[in-house]
Specification:
The chain is mainly alpha-helical. The chain is built from 5 helices and no strands. It has one domain.
């Protein structure tokens, strides 16, 4: 494996592991405290309350798969969809806003979404449970 390939695989690993870990914090919080807020938002949008439980797929299952590098592209797609839904249901009023430190009010959500799209396009790399040739990696 060349130095360039090693750097690319390390970069892919850092991207997917950090994305998975940071999203997983949100999922663990929902495991501890329940999906009450998500259920409220989902029902206010006219969706069945059961849809709220999909947050566990997007914020627990998918991040664990990203961290492991197993079905990473599929897991990244799930995280990306989860972020689009979160932005649509909770954050649309913040699209044109700037936060107190001068950044875009949605910069964190945008970074999670962009990172998920990057993993979706790049795959997990060799430093993953699924390996570079693994299905969906």
């Amino acid at each position: 494996m060349s130095g360039t390939q090693t750097s690319q695989d390390l970069g892919k690993a850092v991207l997917r592991i950090v994305l998975g870990a940071l999203i997983l914090f949100h999922g663990v919080s929902k495991l501890i405290h329940g999906p009450g807020f998500v259920t409220q938002v989902v029902t206010q949008a006219g969706l069945p309350p059961a849809v709220a439980y999909l947050v566990y797929v997007g914020e627990v299952v998918a991040p664990i798969l990203l961290i492991l590098g197993l079905w990473a592209r599929l897991a990244a797609l799930v995280v990306a969809v989860n972020m689009v839904v979160a932005i649509a249901l909770v954050h649309t009023s913040q699209f044109g806003l700037v936060n107190d430190t001068g950044g875009w009010a949605l910069e964190l959500q945008a970074m999670y979404l962009a990172s998920a799209l990057a993993v979706l396009l790049l795959g997990a790399g060799r430093l993953s449970v699924g390996g570079i040739a693994g299905r969906w990696n």
